[in-house]
Write a structure and sequence with these properties.
InterPro entries: AKR (IPR020471), LGALDH-like (IPR044479), NAD(P)_OxRdtase_dom_sf (IPR036812), NADP_OxRdtase_dom (IPR023210). The protein is of the alpha/beta class. It is 42% helix and 14% strand. It has one domain: TIM Barrel, CATH 3.20.20.100. The protein contains 13 helices and 10 strands. Strands 3-4-5-6-7-8-9-10 form an 8-stranded parallel β-barrel, surrounded by 5 helices.
Length: 345
């Protein structure tokens, strides 16, 4: 049985379950984060229907079972996720969790979607704290830096404004997030503001392993590393991706073939996808979107029990015989190009 993390609260947590969870030192932050963490992109209509009561139960159960890192953003549901999460956290000891939110990505309208200015960043931080009902967040991240007109505004306006919030006690640590890992690396190297963590998504998964090339840089800078969306935003799940998923047809088709093969063998593809990420070195935590207790149970079971021999054989077949058909396994550039086309159109 493992040691108890600093987030452990006697009388609130299930001590036996907390001791079963693995925790990792999160870069230079001093935080020990659970190997599995809670993403709240589904605490709104982004991924279909959701229920406040289910979200609340999911947050409570996740924390009681040892998950201690929660990620949200103003972008998810355009404020809804933060508001819902704020309601879910009512009555929970503040010591029991670490929470991360973001700045810079906001509205559905492409012309209002991104704003990296100092003014908007300040307003966003205040609004996030109000929605969450908190005095501070543990991590404040600049969201999807690749969409900035230039990294210069991120480096000269957004990050210094986040640093100012940190000095005022509104955030403990600073991070950056995005899809192209090369852009994140460039931002980290060029920043005069100390960056403590990095989040990238779908980049250490059964489908794509781009981030491995950049792990030495993350280690050299002693960054906390959040590996998000091992399920590739639904591509590697039984349910499949949402309509808005940016992956091109060839990637979607191959992932559909993987999904059908798993269904034929009575194996949950999502479980295989999570297991793959959990076995990889590098991430301090694997961030998984969960908005129901069923999803939480599925992922906790996968975390604690691993996979059977049959599931391993299916996993190997999916990786080596199906997903390997793809020569390009990312959709880098597609969303950014579409965004600028719309904005300038």
């Amino acid at each position: 049985m493992g040691e108890l993390p600093e987030t452990f609260v006697p009388g609130f947590h299930n001590e036996a379950e907390v001791r079963k969870m693995k925790y990792s030192k999160f870069g230079n932050t001093g935080m020990s984060v659970s190997k599995l963490s809670l993403g709240t992109g589904g605490f709104c209509l982004n991924y279909g229907q959701f229920s406040l009561e289910q979200c609340k139960t999911t947050v409570h159960e996740a924390l009681k079972n040892g998950i201690n890192y929660i990620d949200t953003a103003p972008w998810y549901g355009h404020g809804v996720s933060e508001e819902v999460l704020g309601k879910c956290l009512e009555g929970i000891p503040r010591k029991a969790y670490y929470i991360a939110t973001k700045v810079a990505r906001y509205e559905a309208d492409p012309k209002l979607m991104f704003d990296f200015t100092a003014k908007k960043t300040k307003e966003s931080i205040e609004l996030s704290l109000k929605r969450l009902g908190l005095d501070y967040v543990d991590v404040l991240q600049v969201h999807d830096v690749e969409f900035a007109p230039s990294l210069d505004i991120v480096l000269n306006e957004t990050l210094p404004t986040v640093k100012e919030a940190q000095s005022q006690g509104k955030a403990r640590f600073i991070g950056v997030t995005g899809y192209p890992v090369s852009v994140l690396a460039d931002c980290i190297k060029r920043s005069s503001v100390k960056i403590d963590m990095v989040l990238c998504y779908t980049r250490l998964s059964m489908l794509n392993q781009t981030v491995k090339e950049y792990l030495p840089l993350f280690k050299e800078k002693n960054l906390g590393f959040v590996n998000a969306a091992a399920h590739c935003m639904g591509l590697l799940s039984s349910a499949g991706p949402p309509e808005w998923h940016p992956a091109p047809k060839d990637i979607r088709d191959v992932c559909t073939e993987a999904r059908e093969y798993c269904k034929k063998n009575n194996v949950e593809l999502g479980k295989l996808a999570l297991q793959y990420a959990l076995q990889e070195d590098g991430p301090h935590t694997n961030l998984v979107g969960m908005n129901t207790t069923d999803l939480l149970k599925l992922n906790l079971d996968g975390y604690h029990k691993g996979i059977t021999q049959k599931e391993k054989e299916v996993s190997d077949y999916v990786k080596n015989k199906i997903l390997s058909k793809l020569t390009k396994t990312d959709w880098e550039g597609i969303e950014v190009a579409r965004y600028w086309e719309t904005v300038k159109g």
